Structures are given as C-alpha cells and as structure tokens.
Fold this sequence. Notes:
mainly alpha; Arc Repressor Mutant, subunit A; two-stranded parallel sheet; two-stranded antiparallel sheet; globular
Amino acid sequence: xxxxxxxxxxxxxxxxxxxxxxxxxxxxxxxxxxxxxxxxxxxxxxxxxxxxxxxxxxxxxxxxxxxxxxxxxxxxxxxxxxxxxxxxxxxxxxxxxxx
Length: 99
C-alpha cells in the first residue's frame, strides 16, 4: 500500500490538495490514519509532495510529525503553490483534487 500512496500523492498538482480520506477511498480502504503514517515516512519530499494532503475538513495538520513548526512549514509550502490557508485550513471547494 505504501508505494500506491506515494504514487497517488505524486498526481496532486501544484495549487491543489487532496485528503487522507480521498487517498484511502481511491485505494478502496478506510485506513485514513495509515495513510498519514505512510506519508509521515515519505522518503523523498521532492518527488512525493505529501504536503498537499490535508484532513477531510481542510485542516492543515502535521508535516513530518506533530511539531507545530512543521505545520507552519506545510502551510508555507502550500501558500507558495497558490493554495490559500486561512486559520489553519484550506478551502476544499476551491483547491480539492479528486484522484
């Protein structure tokens, strides 16, 4: 499942996000937390843009763990790609990418 998660993540274009739930749905699974654990161990952040995956409510959660500084880093990466982050959330109606 790990390689499939990374492959799906690579499909998310700049300026868009998807959710852990959407990745799990695409894999015919309900293991949302497992998706997060897989992305937490991303071996190559340059080619696997795990920062483009958010919670199903649009919340930008941890990036490489729960360190608050990493969450800010994730928000900054998304903002640099044109994804608006307001009060820690992304507008999914505007930026959601269906896999």
